[in-house]
From TrEMBL:
InterPro entries membership: Alkaline_phosphatase_core_sf, ARSB, Sulfatase_CS, Sulfatase_N
Residues in Sulfatase N-terminal domain copies: 51-363
GO MF term list: metal ion binding; sulfuric ester hydrolase activity
Protein name per UniProt: ARSJ Arylsulfatase
Gene3D superfamilies, per database record: 3.30.1120.10, Alkaline Phosphatase, subunit A (3.40.720.10)
Needed co-factor(s): Ca(2+)
CDD domains per UniProt: 4-S
UniProt-listed PROSITE patterns: SULFATASE_1, SULFATASE_2
Family per similarity comment: Belongs to the sulfatase family.
Pfam families linked: Sulfatase (PF00884)
């Protein structure tokens, strides 16, 4: 039929080949749901008291890269879900993978988990600190079945760090930050390569059929939903690999994007089209098995897009890895029959840490008083349009990031050392210090050439020695007018707030690489390498040696 469609040039059949059918009809593609008539609703629905929670996290999706933000990339599923739900248009995440994921799962800022700097590297003996209670652990306490499919990226050097040890009943996906979409291999450096696909705590060799990861993860989600009892609450965390590099997609998803000359943008568009289709299939499966009417679907990107890898944050400034709006302001929405104000836009301040308390309260759970959260319960803000309880966001304080050469305590009015990379939002105001990162605006025409062309970018050359920026984000969301010289009192207020936050920070966890992490030493697989028994044996040996030395010293003294 696809061949016939191409030959005939009929737009309807062309649409069918891309897999976008009506919501209630049967379809294939990126993880076709098992069974017939995906739109059917079983007579017996789920319990109304505790909602099913479906959290979908995209990887590196740019702010502009969704249809309803004006993208040339078609995302009919995301557009429909967002239009029928609540669009989050003042929603913030962190500028990189690990920080956003850690804050989602703990409800805490990076400065309170020790993950202030960069990401967790594959060879680092590091993971989300084990003394942090996680979202799936709290949901399990109130009867939820918890499942994770997709990218973990919160560390794995010891078994206690694995997803199944952090609250998930099951895990299917990757442990690292990136890898090949088909082979699931990843090289961290020359000669340090391994396989990265897991089923719970073991390499998933038997489940690997060379399927594109977006489709493979969707199929796994459908299997979980098919086997679970919809009368019992489920938390499903789907952390897709897409649209993170490497830029790979099945051939048929390029169909509508042949006209995009920039090869990275074209591949990125195909990847996003496949992701959009996959999310449609997840939604249809929720309907088929009776979850949908009592479900809450949350969609979020983990950080801004990377223009050199096809992503677009226009008209925002900056990109992934920076504290400009393009790095931290994300695509996000909530879709649910349980929303009171469906079809609305939420412009209240919301941060990724807010999902932790919000979802626990929706699940009728309890938040321990001794857990010092940075997130807020924002359900009434989203569902009913009320004011957000949040008035500020600490975007981060990174004390070991490359210091700004001209930063000083003097530039920070004796309140703050402006050489340190930091960013904070208080009400309408946003302050950045230190080295905030790549600061260009990258308009759509920058992708018009065969390769990335920075001549189309709007370049900014700051006066020498500048290490403080102040913006009114409400009035100037594109960060074009620096107000730091005009409002020194506001700068001082925000610097004091930074200083207050910094007093609560824990030490940075960023250990050097461990040679024992090499997959060659672990059967060619990336996985836990740290053995607690070995550490105990070494400590016991050292204790024994110390005792022997002490006894010898006593004999010599006698």
């Amino acid at each position: 039929r696809m061949v016939a469609a191409v030959l005939a040039g009929l737009s309807l059949l062309s649409l069918l080949t891309c897999g976008y059918l009506a919501w209630g009809s049967r379809r294939g593609g990126a993880g076709e749901a098992p069974g017939n008539l995906l739109g059917e609703e079983p007579a017996a629905g789920a319990s109304r008291s505790q909602p099913h929670i479906i959290f979908i996290l995209a990887d590196d999706q740019g702010f502009r890269d969704v249809g309803y933000h004006g993208s040339e990339i078609r995302t009919p599923t995301l557009d429909k879900l967002a239009a029928e739900g609540v669009k989050l248009e003042n929603y913030y995440v962190q500028p990189m993978c690990t920080p956003s994921r850690s804050q989602l799962i703990t409800g805490k800022y990076q400065i309170h988990t020790g993950l202030q700097h960069s990401i967790i590297r594959p060879t680092q003996p590091n993971c989300l600190p084990l003394d942090n209670v996680t979202l799936p652990q709290k949901l399990k306490e109130v009867g939820y079945s918890t499942h994770m499919v997709g990218k973990w990226h919160l560390g794995f050097y010891r078994r206690e760090c694995m997803p199944t040890q952090r609250g998930f009943d099951s895990f299917f996906g990757s442990l690292l930050g990136s890898g090949d979409y088909y082979t699931h291999f990843k090289c961290d450096s020359p000669g340090i390569c391994g396989y990265d696909l897991y089923e719970n705590n073991n390499a998933a060799w038997d489940h690997d059929n060379g399927i594109y990861s977006t489709q493979m993860y969707t199929q796994k989600v459908q299997q979980i939903l098919a086997s679970h009892n919809p009368r019992k609450p489920i938390f499903l965390y789907i952390a897709y690999q897409a649209v993170h590099s490497p830029l790979q997609a099945p051939g048929r998803y390029f169909e509508h994007y042949r006209s995009i000359n920039n090869i990275n943008r074209r591949r990125y568009a195909a990847m996003l089209a496949c992701l959009d289709e996959a999310i449609n299939n997840v939604t249809l499966t929720l309907r088929k098995y009776g979850y949908y009417e009592n479900s809450i679907i949350i969609y979020s990107s983990d950080n801004g897009g990377q223009p050199m890898a096809g992503g677009s944050n226009w008209p925002l400034r900056g990109s992934k890895g920076t504290y400009w709006e393009g790095g931290i302001r994300a695509v996000g929405f909530v879709h649910s029959p349980l929303l009171k104000n469906k079809g609305s836009v939420c412009k209240e301040l919301v941060h990724i840490t807010d999902w932790f308390p919000t979802l626990i309260m929706l699940a009728e759970g309890q938040i321990d008083e001794d857990i010092q959260l940075d997130g807020y319960d924002v359900w009434e803000t989203i569902s009913e349009g009320r004011r957000s309880p949040r008035v500020d966001i600490l975007h981060n304080i990174d004390p070991i990031y490359t210091k700004a050469k001209n930063g000083s305590w003097a530039a920070g009015y004796g309140i703050w050392n402006t050489a340190i990379q930091s960013a904070i939002r208080v009400n309408h105001w946003k302050l950045l210090t230190g080295n905030p990162g790549y600061s260009d605006w990258v308009p759509p025409q920058a992708f018009s050439n065969a390769g990335p062309n920075r001549w189309h970018n709007e370049r900014v050359s700051w006066s020498a020695g500048k290490t403080v920026w102040l913006f009114n984000i409400t009035a100037d969301p594109y960060e074009r007018v620096d107000l730091s010289a005009r409002h020194p009192e506001v700068v001082k207020q925000l610097l004091r707030r930074l200083s207050q936050f910094n007093k609560t920070a824990v030490p940075v966890r960023y250990p050097p690489k461990d040679p024992r992490s090499n997959p060659k030493l672990n059967g060619g697989v990336w996985g836990p390498w740290f053995k607690e028994d070995e550490k105990k044996k070494k400590s016991d040996k050292s204790k024994g040696a110390n005792k022997q030395k002490k006894s010898k010293n006593k004999k010599k003294a006698n």
